[in-house]
UniProtKB/TrEMBL annotation:
Protein name according to UniProt: Uncharacterized protein
Record flagged with keyword Ligase: no
Similarity field: Belongs to the multi antimicrobial extrusion (MATE) (TC 2.A.66.1) family.
Keywords in alphabetical order: Membrane, Transmembrane, Transmembrane helix
């Protein structure tokens, strides 16, 4: 949901960058921070009460208890979404994809090291896995934020502005529509995992389906990355309709 809501920032930042209204990019991003952070608070009960909710819909007690435990420790991960997704789109709309890749690569390296220490050496278990995930995502957030405020985006980041608190309702409506669209596109994967909790030998079914969905998610990153690049190129620079159609079909053929 939050990923879809942050996707609304792509359109606004892409248009502002193409129109050379660079100062608006930082204002749009701060506005997105406010809206998404408030939505994160509204979604917080899903993490806090994950165990009773899962038991209420008929999930096995042991699966519900374990899921609830992980959900509690993933709350910091949940609150990183408003900043992670918006910073990515803020930088990508300025064609600074190399910075995003570099920061993400560094965060991945840190995550691998911490996972090896906490999960395999210290045997912290599923809680340790959740904590390493929390930490690595916030490393990525701070890495991109430091780049933006320390001179990497001199034209588009001019500091915190009170203008970010104006037009919140219009931005909320746009972001919710985008969030619902992406939610409906991807919710059936999650529904399948939920349904697997009702079959015989639940643990094996959930594990197997989670692995399959994860592999499918990795695979989908390739075409999604190319399609996102096409959107940023066509959004940030003036192109004819013929150029837009050519780029789209070239990506699809690839």
């Amino acid at each position: 949901m939050q990923l879809g809501m942050a996707s609304a920032l792509e359109t606004l930042c892409g248009r502002a960058y193409g129109a050379k209204q660079y100062h608006l990019l930082g204002i749009y991003m701060q506005r997105c921070w406010i809206v998404l952070f408030l939505c994160s608070i509204l979604l917080l009960p899903l993490f806090v009460f994950a165990t009773p909710i899962l038991k209420l819909i008929g999930q096995p007690a042991d699966t519900a208890e374990q899921t609830g435990l992980v959900a509690i420790w993933l709350i910091p991960f949940h609150f990183s979404f408003p900043f992670q997704f918006t910073l990515q789109r803020f930088l990508q709309s300025q064609l600074k994809t190399g910075v995003v890749a570099l920061v993400s690569g560094g965060a991945l390296l840190i995550h691998v090291i911490l996972s090896w220490v906490f999960v395999y050496k210290l045997r912290v278990g599923i809680v340790g896995t959740a904590l390493t995930l929390d930490f690595s995502w916030w490393v990525s957030v701070f890495g991109m934020f430091i780049y933006c405020v320390c001179g990497g985006c001199q034209l588009s980041w001019t500091g915190f502005s009170t203008q970010a608190f104006t037009g919140l309702w219009e931005f909320f409506k746009l972001s919710v529509a985008s969030g619902i669209m992406l939610l409906l596109e991807n919710i059936y994967y999650r529904v399948l995992i939920m349904v697997s909790g009702f079959v015989y030998n639940t643990k094996v079914a959930v594990d197997a389906l989670s692995i399959c969905v994860t592999i499918l998610g990795w695979e989908s990153m390739i075409p999604l990355g190319f399609l996102a690049a096409t959107g940023y190129v066509t959004g940030c620079k003036p192109h004819s309709f013929h150029d837009f159609i050519y780029l789209r079909f070239t990506i699809c053929d690839f």
